[in-house]
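2024-03-11 09:14:02 INFO queue: dequeued item alpha-1,2-Mannosidase, len=659
2024-03-11 09:14:02 INFO validating residues
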Amino acid sequence: MPVGGLLPLFSSPAGGGLGGGLGGGLGGGGSGSRKASGPAAFRLTEKFVLLLVFSAFITLCFGAIFFLPDSSKLLSGVLFHSSPALQPAADHKSGPGARAEDAADGRARRGEEGAPGDPAAALEDNLARIRENHERALREAKETLQKLPEEIQRDILLEKEKVAQDQLRDKAVFRRLPPVDFVPPIGAVGREPADAAIREKRAKIKEMMKHAWNNYKRYAWGLNELKPISKEGHSSSLFGSIKGATIVDALDTLFIMEMKDEFEEAKSWVEENLDFNVNAEVSVFEVNIRFVGGLLSAYYLSGEEIFRKKAVELGVKLLPAFHTPSGIPWALLNIKSGIGRNWPWASGGSSILAEFGTLHLEFLHLSHLSGNPIFAEKVMNIRTVLNNLEKPQGLYPNYLNPSSGQWGQYHVSVGGLGDSFYEYLLKAWLMSDKTDLEAKKMYFDAVQAIETHLIRKSSRGLTYIAEWKGGLLEHKMGHLTCFAGGMFALGADDAPAGLTQHYLQLGAEIARTCYESYNRTFMKLGPEAFRFDGGVEAIATRQNEKYYILRPEVVETYMYMWRLTHDPKYRKWAWEAVEALENHCRVNGGYSGLRDVYLRHESYDDVQQSFFLAETLKYLYLIFSDDDLLPLEHWIFNTEAHLLPVLSTNKKEVEVNEK
Ligand code: DMJ
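2024-03-11 09:14:37 INFO prediction written
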């Protein structure tokens, strides 16, 4: 779908196509003031030729790295009956929740549904692709060798100029923000619930927010997060030297809970201290969902210009991440130099599906609020790349190489590394006021493939979402995967004919499974991952999967299920989670995660995650509020629970305003 079709509300689309380009890679070496003749030109030519030979070599290595593991897995699974060593994967949230998965899993079951296609054909395919890449690299090297030194010099200068122009245009975007009419937010604060018991529960959750906020303020003000046991600040490398993650993440929760003084002090901090002119290598995904999302949400709720300005300023800083040959962004970016790279652990230098697939909502709003389509163009190009790729069994692998534009390892997950990509397909459809038909189709096609290949029922009837590794199922579900219950239910209304009830039911079944993962622990809070094999159901069996870091996904699903069904069990389950948080995570200095939810005594991890304030407490508060607080037909929650309004078509906006 053309970008224009998605952006009916741009006030002043600035010119310029896709940034693209080689991200300063080639231009970086030469000094702009050197003359084009003599020994200097000769050295530059040599450098360029070396660079090409080197890239050809790297292309070959990459090809080998990211195709061989699949083949060897197939071979070990099919021929040798040994347990393949699975590649380390990490929670795509990397920092706080990051855990490299256990390398080997002897229980990867052969013969489970989801068998790959013909292995010989797949192998042949991979080899053909490697050959093709190789030939292309050689061809390019040959062409360059035939050029005159002056031509090479000119190409380099052109490339440098393009990058410089991109950067200039990107900067100009936020200096000249067009005026926008602030539309008063719908349902940003709600009535008190009529039922006294519910009112009391809601007030309790607000008190929890106060406890978390006051302690952060007291011990870690201006830093990213709080260590509630040590009573000091906590920094995570995810944000480089950008500061204030908790403040920005908490803004909208403070607003909807009507904590006005706290909102004002947070706003002043943003005005005076939130600084993006720092030499920092950041996670593009984390900075986008927490900082860009938090600032956009604060703007849409309060109408304060500072939030719009800061959101766009940060969005501009993230643009160089897209300077890759395919336009699939890097995972990590130095926001000063504009140099990007990928996580060293990611398959063959790949970018991660859940990271580059979780920019769409925020970037559309950045275009909307800046009047510049560049942000939307970048994310629409991601979609084009994805749509041009063949999907194994209709599934989206978690790894995609930004240089070749090809998939890395065939590992599919609705939890870490994949999760919010699917969430953003559905929400792109909803946020477009149901005009983005492409997103809708991609979402329902993906969900259908997930149902066929990943969703299973345990022997005692619990529905779970397994992970798919090159056609083999790992019968494990992550806490992160629990968000999917809410997602299935939220999409149910628009499901293909006759499937609405089915998806609501699927949402309810996932909610039940995730509830069981909480209920089967001593602390009544769920582990990071739980398994359905070796005779257990919904229980963590590995020590490194027993922790709980104040994550929101289970209460997030309760929130959607409550709103969409009003089945009282969701309020009951949510209240059990509140009690467990109070009993086991609350300490004098705030709230802490737990190292093992099956132990009888708390072992604290000493981190109050910023998403506890952004998400966990917000979802809980909404469960005990009336539905007119943030009505789902007007607001989309980004993956960090930040609020983005539906980009209404003009017609509908008029209708709303007239009411
Ligand atoms: C949050 O940062 C977001 O919800 C993200 O999508 C997943 N992980 C954390 C919370 O668990």
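2024-03-11 09:14:37 INFO annotate: Confidence is low (pLDDT under 50) at residues 1-42, 63-117, 651-659.
2024-03-11 09:14:38 INFO item closed
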